[in-house]
Amino acid sequence: MIVGVPKEIKDQEFRVSLTPDGVRALCATGHTVWIEPDAGTGSGFSDEDYRKAGAHLAKTKAHLFEEAELIVKVKEPLPSEHALFRPGQVLFTYLHLAASAQLTQALLKARVTAIAYETTEGPDGGLPMLKPMSEIAGRLSVQIGARYLERTQGGSGLLLGGVPGVAPARVAILGAGVVGTEAARIAVGMGAQVTVLNLDPERLRRLDELYQGRIVTLAAHQVWIDKTVADADLVIGAVLVRGGRAPKLVSRSIVARMRPGSVIVDVSVDQGGCIETTRPTTHSDPVYTVDGVLHYCVANMPGIVPRTSTFALTNATLPFIVRIASAGVEAAVRADPGLARGVNVAAGKVTCKGVAEAHGLSWEPPI
Question: Rounded to whole angstroms, what are the CA distances from 84 to 34, 75, 93, 148, 292?
Answer without folding.
Answer: 15, 16, 16, 39, 42
